[in-house]
Design brief:
This protein has six helices and four strands. The protein is α+β, with helices and mostly antiparallel strands. It has one domain. The strands form two sheets. It has a two-stranded antiparallel ribbon with strand order 1-4. A two-stranded parallel ribbon has the order 2-3.
Amino acid sequence: MKKEHVLHCQFSAWYPLFRSLTIKSVILPLPQNVKDYLLDDGTLVVSGREDPPTRSQPDSDDEAEEIQWSDDENTATLTAPEFPEFTTKVQEAINSLGGSVFPKLNWSAPRDAYWIAMNSSLKCKTLSDIFLLFKSSDFITRDFTQPFVHCTDDSPDPCMEYEVSTASPIGVSLLLVLPALALSECGAFENFDSS
C-alpha cells in the first residue's frame, strides 16, 4: 500500500463524494490542545461527568463506623482539562445528529476500547464519552502517530497537521469524525472508492 492510498482512504477524502449515499456525519478539526491531551499518557480525567449516586443504606449495621481518608497535603489533585469552544462545537454536532454518535478519527474508530465505556459500546453522547474511548484505543493512537506504518513506498510521510491548514496541500489534518449512530452498535462499516 502506498501513502497516497492511505490518504485517499481517510474519511474526509471520500465523504464529500458520497455524502448523499452514506450516514450523516460532522467533521471537526482537532485543536492542538485536544491532540496533546489525547496523546498524554497521564491519568484519564474527564469533565462533564456526574458522580455515581451514593447508597442511602449502609451495608453494615454499624452506622457509626466511617472510613477516615487521609488529608495528606502532598496528595495531588487531578483536574480535568477544559476545552470550552471545542466542547461546544462537539456537543452541537452530537445534538444535530440525534444525540448519539459513533466517533472516529480520519481512518479509525476506537473499536478496541468499547470495553471501557459505561455502556460497553462505542455510542457516545458527550465529549467525555469520546475522550474515554479515544484515550483507551490503540487504533486512535496509531492514527495520531503512525498512519503510514504499513506503507511500502519510500516517499516522505505527508506532513501531519493537527489543525486545518491550507498551507500544506499534501498534509494530513487530524479530524474528529462524528457519524450519526444509525447502525448496529456492534459493528462499523467502511467504504472505499478505488477510482
